[in-house]
User: What shape does this take?
Amino acid sequence: MVALMIAEPPVRDVSLQVQLTPTQAKVLHGVRSGQFNKQIAHDLGIAEATVKAHMTALMRKLNVQNRTQVAIAAQSLVPHIA
Assistant: This one.
């Protein structure tokens, strides 16, 4: 498991700890980089359907509704995903 901290806006001095699997962290990195599911799947050597499953889990864990919000949330992760 990979533990990541999401920094909240300055108004709230609270952090939310998110537990991600190593593959979820890699998928998150791909989304943050602007890759399509097909590209992420190819890079990780997994099926596109598996990437979609990880995206669903990421949306649930990050409490967001869509891929764009996942990418925005990924930008605020601490430490930053390189």
User: Anything to note?
Assistant: Residues 7-15 have pLDDT under 50 and may be disordered.
